[in-house]
Recover the amino acids of this structure.
């Protein structure tokens, strides 16, 4: 689970302002961070199937958001990809 300070840090880096938690770029960055923590959890607990299912749902949702961002704002997509180290 992300702490409040981690979440506000991500929103500050990727959002238009400090309260912009709903933009596509911020949501993709939050999902990426959450995926990292779930991946670490699954390395220790490889039989936790409910967490694995949650991770797969987040992966699918992030993929949809990335596709949306790429179609609507390619410049922001490239910037976010380089900032998060995707692709």
């Amino acid at each position: 689970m992300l702490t409040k300070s981690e979440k506000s840090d991500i929103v500050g880096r990727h959002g238009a302002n400090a309260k912009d938690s709903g933009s596509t770029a911020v949501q993709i960055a939050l999902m990426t961070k959450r995926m990292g923590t779930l991946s670490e959890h699954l390395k220790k607990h490889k039989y936790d199937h409910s967490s694995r299912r949650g991770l797969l749902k987040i992966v699918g949702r992030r993929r949809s958001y990335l596709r949306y961002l790429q179609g609507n704002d390619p410049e922001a997509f490239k910037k976010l990809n380089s900032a998060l180290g995707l692709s």
